[in-house]
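User: I'll paste a sequence; please echo it back and then give the predicted structure.

Assistant: Echoing your sequence first, then the prediction.
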Amino acid sequence: GGRIDAISVDVGDRVTQGQVLARLDTRALEAQIAAADAQTAEARAQVDLAQVTQDRQQALLERGHISQQRLDEASTTTHAADARRLAAAASANALRAQLSLSVIAAPFDGVITARLSDEGGIASPGQGLLRIVEDGALEIRVGLPAEVAARLQTGTQYRFTTDRGEIDARLRASTGIVDTRTRSVTVLFDVDGHTVSAGQVARLAIDQTISADGFWVPTSALAEGRRGLWSVYVLEADEYGTYTIAPHVVETVRIDAGRAFVRGAVHDGALILRSGLDRVTPGQRVRPGVDG
């Protein structure tokens, strides 16, 4: 982390791998490195002095002028000084490693899609400074129910719909792990060509067989009732050639692309009002018209 000294790119700029994108202010870090280097030099001098003293004690011991304990003490002093030297050198190396992280370079060729920070701001560990999208590496991430994800074939192309039209994408991989929050499995698709932009929303339609009794109706045929119940308006014929509108409560099993799969007490062949529910009322008599 540290203060952001400079950001040399902006949104929309194309960058190449290794290009410098931003720099952090390193003045404080460089001062710490200088102090650590000074401590290392001091510790090295102490090691040299301790080693000279130890060599002298060794010579005196061989002449019988001192005890073994005096030599052991000198040897301990030398080892302690060398340990301090190693610690100071390690501290300097760690600071230099931090210094190398003060220059942020592009990890690959791509396009800058967002600036998340500005010069003068503070960069914290884990904080993003820029968002970059790799050239030719767009992918679509989709969360699918586990049973649906398991039916998809790796390497197969699937059709997606975006605001710009339809695109094809090839299934690359599935995580196979159910997200505990969304109860879905993340599936990754590689986009063929360059017909989409990063950040676009893509929709995947998958046909799914539902083993359940019921029938499909347009969502415009559903009327919301009390306590969250849904109804369809059934046209019940009478002896006068007219029909009476009768609401029948149904359960929605699935809603998909403007239609709903429902089940309820509606017999086969019943006439159901498709739309215009706001213009009629239950119990009202109507007569079917003829489309012209």
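The chain has a mean pLDDT of 86. Residues 1-17+110-135 form one domain.
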